[in-house]
Amino acid sequence: MKIKIPLAIPYIMTGIASSFALSLKIEIMAEVITGYTRLGLGSAILSAQRSDPTNMVPVFAYSLVAIVIMLVFDSVANVVKEKYEQ
Question: 26-42: per-residue pLDDT in tens?
Answer without folding.
Answer: 888 888 888 777 788 88
